[in-house]
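In keeping with the milestone schedule agreed at the kick-off meeting, the structural modelling team has produced records for the first pair of proteins. Each record is given below as a sequence line and a structure-token line. The laboratory manager (R.T.) confirmed that both were archived under the project's standard naming scheme.
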Amino acid sequence: MKPLFAIPGDKALEERVYQVKEITQPYFSTEFHFHHECQLVYVVESAGRRIIGDNVAYFDSGELIFVGSGTPHVWHNEQKYFEVKNQLQARSLAMYVSPDLLLEHLAPFGNISHVKAWLKKSQRGIEFYGKAKSDILALMRQMLQQQDLSQTITFITLLQTMISAKECRLLASPNYVNLYNDKDQSRMDDIFKFIFRHFKRDIPLSEIAAVAGINVHSFCRFFKSRTQKSFTYFVNELRIGYACRLLQEKEMPMMELSAKCGYNNTTHFNRFFKKIKGKTPREYKKEVSQID
């Protein structure tokens, strides 16, 4: 198993400030990992759960996220992507940026403190939406058709567009710190994959601790120290994210919806939804309907 600290793609970034490419696979195959390079990801076609730092959410086609240096992350597809006879694909556009080389090459042109500050902020993960997303995506696609100086000029424009964007949101919590080390990858990847497969049912602590290969007390301490969340809160956050997706897509009785998300009764569902989203499921559904 590779260590948690990963080197993305090939070795192009050892000499280049950036690299942009298209990726098409049967499913997103990376494990929960982090790397020194920053990463801009546009999901062309895919769906599943993702983790950026301590942020856990459902992702779908059209998502555009910039992940800063050293921030643990993974895009993990739904189970149907791993079935032998499926016709699904996981397609994305990705750009990797070496923060050290970027700052080194920009320094001769003037004050770069605002670039440093933005790179620091991006370690929480930045999701773009609205016109900012459209503009950034257009520049990414343009870079794929260019080479040499023309591509570099477009890259600088893209960088400035991201830094000045107002239509964006930070994902990880303000005090998030990467506490993972290179011995954690195999264990954390097994834990996350198991949770993603089984979050719609009760997962006893003894069962998930067995997946991690440690006792219950050690597991609770290990999971909280790495994710900065309790196991219970993490699972509920994942369930509520799935509930939000269902509320956006389907009309169904609240009892049926809560059951699909792993709750035995709507009282528990409503309580956790309000705790995590700051509003009730019905209020959320109303807001979504108004946007539509």
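The second protein of the pair:
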Amino acid sequence: MTVSPSSSSIALASDATLKHAAALLCAGELVAFPTETVYGLGADAGNPTAVAKIFAAKGRPADHPVIVHVAAAEDFAFWAHDIPEPAQKLIARFCPGPLTLILPRAAHVSDTITGGQDSIGIRMPSHPVARRLLQAFTAQGGRGIAAPSANCFGHVSPTTAQHVADDLQNRVALIVDGGSCEHGIESTIIAFTGDTPLLLRPGSLPLATLEATLGISLQRLDCTKTAAAPRASGTLASHYAPRTPAELVAAEALDAICCRYHQEGKSVAALLRTAPALEHAAHTIVAPVSISGYARALYAALRTLDTHGDDVLLIEDVPTTTEWLAVRDRLLRATTKTN
């Protein structure tokens, strides 16, 4: 079966759609699908040629690994040759769910998935559509779906089917529409490739709960200094970025900075949370105050503000507490400038 994705169709997640999506994956095509975190761009993880299409579609560097999504906990052992006991505890407690584990790769795993590293990222999504797709895929002989976020590399992640279409247009055979994503930010990533577990990317799982399950305090890296860690999805210093130049600004400084840009003749967009409306902002979105609500709305808000073509996007900073760790991680990366 050969499919040429001359146009990317969006189809509601019916049983027929998921069966067709699984067949496309088995045929080596790309399928975008919802997870509880963000939409993923999927390919048959056992087919290096198909996985290579992900990199071409996203403009993703070849050394940047992708995560393999599996249907069941026992599937971790197919892709990893060693699952340490602490990792097994996390699988038992949090899978299916928004958790990715970096583990030593099995011998048969392609370098295309791992970016040439000796480790592999694996997760078991909890979104009912993702789970049904994985079940349909395994019923047709598949073992896992390689799936980074379904967007252009480095851009804001997609949390709706339309976001996927906006970014990837005709580069994917099918987009499965499962509605808006529940969590809205990417999975927590924990590496088990050294002597102690290492938190590479915070997500919606509370850090305290993860540490209580492991019985240790997780070592964390500065979100802009990940050179000492295994390469993993979404851990570059600049990532999740809108196309409008963005700045993370303390609430008390927003008005003055907005006025300065206005005086310079620049158009300003703003993403606020608690600050009062900015007099000189051309476009404003007020995000939810709660952590979960903010995370769920974040990427859609950034994408909406991006459509106006303003000169600068000011983002009100969020608390620096542990509870806001994942959201602030995304905001820091979204506002980090690259040369």
